[in-house]
Amino acid sequence: DVKVTQSSRYLVKRTGEKVFLECVQDMDHENMFWYRQDPGLGLRLIYFSYDVKMKEKGDIPEGYSVSREKKERFSLILESASTNQTSMYLCASSLASPSTDTQYFGPGTRLTVL
Amino acid sequence: AQSVAQPEDQVNVAEGNPLTVKCTYSVSGNPYLFWYVQYPNRGLQFLLKYITGDNLVKGSYGFEAEFNKSQTSFHLKKPSALVSDSALYFCAVGVYNFNKFYFGSGTKLNVKP
Fold first, then answer.
1. Label partner for B101 (CA 20 to 30 A): which of A29, A86, B46, B47?
2. Which phi and psi (to 5°) does residue A77 adopt?
3. Any bridge partners for residue A64, and if so which?
């Protein structure tokens, strides 16, 4: 079974702090994704990575950056957290195609920015 | 533009009754269709997917989905609902050579005892 883990289930940060969310997958998947989930808005893609050190912006990249130094690990960085970044953050991975292979999700990190 | 619509924010059904959660899509090209389920404060779990072939796809936990090309729909169904099926359900579509899934906004399923 594919396993995607996220570093924290719940996180509380202050406005202006730099925040790191980490995601690890154990199935040698090429693609990794970061989404945020807000009530009524569904899932919105922030960034995805199709290979080590490669990344592409998703629908809402503003205020976020990412890092993929190793194949199994994909980090989401909030350079200066703001209250409007309070949300549920979901990481996912898929084998080869980002649009046709099944995406497997981690348990999510619920981030609160005060 | 590619899009997915889940027209119902919420579906209520009594335990033991059949359930349907609706999904329609609009894509250019052949669609790859997925259903996911999310329990409270958890990530999304994969239920089933349609690539090609038989229009009726069977998935986890007794769920199935019917692909209808003419109506561009991919409705999720279960013959007999359980209270434990209560959750948030997401439909997603992908198209080859694009770089992402398109997710619906989600449908909350409430199964009453």
1. A86
2. -120, 125
3. A78
Nearest to B90 among A9, A33, A42 (CB): A42
Residue showing tokens 């779990």: B45
pLDDT at A2 over 90: no
Average pLDDT over residues B11-23: 98
pLDDT band at A47 (very low <50, low <70, confident <90, very high): very high
Question: What is the sign of the dihedral through the CA atoms of A4, A8, A9 and A14?
Answer: negative
Each residue of B44-94: pLDDT tens digit? 999 999 998 889 999 999 999 999 999 999 999 999 999 999 999 999 999
CB-based contact A42 B106, cutoff 8 Å? yes
Q: For residues B23 and B75, is the Cβ–Cβ distance under 8 A?
A: yes
SS3 content of chain B, % helix, strand, coil (to 5): 5, 55, 40
The three-state secondary structure class of A68 is: strand
Do residue A108 and residue B42 have CB atoms under 8 angstroms apart? Answer: yes
| Residue A39, pLDDT above cutoff 90 | no
Structure tokens at B25: 């899509």
Q: Print burial letters for B7-46: b (CB count within 10 Å at least 16), e (below 16).
A: eeeebebeeeeebebbbbbebeeebbbbbbbbeeebbbeb
